[in-house]
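Lecture 7 notes: from sequence to structure.

We start with a single chain of 333 residues. Read the sequence below before looking at the structure.
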Amino acid sequence: MKVLAGDVGGTNARLAVVEVAAGVTQIVYERRFPTRGTPGLAPIVREFLAGAGPTPQRACFGIACPVVDGDCRTPNLPWTVNARALAADIGIADTYIINDFDAVGYGLSRLAPADLVTLQPGVRAPRGTIALIGAGTGLGEGFLVWDGERYRVHSSEGGHASFAARDDIEWGLRATLRSEFGHVSSERILSGGGLERLYRYLAASRYAPEQAKVAGEMKHQDAAAVVSEHALAGDDPLSVKALDLFASVYGAQAGDLALTVLATGGVYLAGGIAPKIAPKLADGTFMTAFRDKGRLSDLAARIPVHIIMNPDVGLLGAAAMAAAGSRGATTAA
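Now the structure, written as tokens:
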């Protein structure tokens, strides 16, 4: 069965025609579209379908937003998406919208061992709860729970929960962000925009001098990408510290989620940022913060932690949901 799948974020939308068969999920045609500055999802889908050949009979879109009764309002885009209206606009009656991390959860069982980088092998509990977290344009979270026969995927908006500062630097960061935004969520830090905020905060705090070369690049390129590049190269102390702090906050947040859902089945890092900074996440900074949980540090040290390196996981999960249709997708992760 060929279906239409979408992975829709605050910066880009990836749409694909996907062949779904027993044990096989294969992308046959794919395009990427910018989402910022676009009035909604339907025009993007119509443009995609115009060049995709025969229109599939089923579609599912994983969208970075809370989905309630077929409606979602995207926090990082001025969009409101309704499943029924979208179905009518694109001409596919069987159209579904789900949270983007629901799509990641449905895609987990479609991954191969080579699609993962392991940060902590841990000891996986058979049928234990699985946690998902991923920084990109925003911060997504979700989890999978065994229902007695298979895993069921559950979305979460934990990325919008309040940021918990752990030391003087983070308290100063929190105070700075509170003056700008009011409520300070973890997403304000664990996102592409958040990495730039960390850099700006450290520069204003005079942690290290700001290099003119780096500042100039940030004016004309994606700021988070510039910071990451110089941090991984080790040629700018300010960028190095910003990424170090980012990785530490990321690890602490992932550890908090692991304890919240008791993720004895493992924690998986998705999203666009983790694969790009995998060497930093693997240097111990992330896992030190992940395991720093006081009396439950030993438990945190036993939880498997992996980075999902396959950028198609959300598309594969949305395709599985489209193929399942009204029966609802499940996963045997």
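The mean pLDDT is 94. Keep this in mind for problem set 3.
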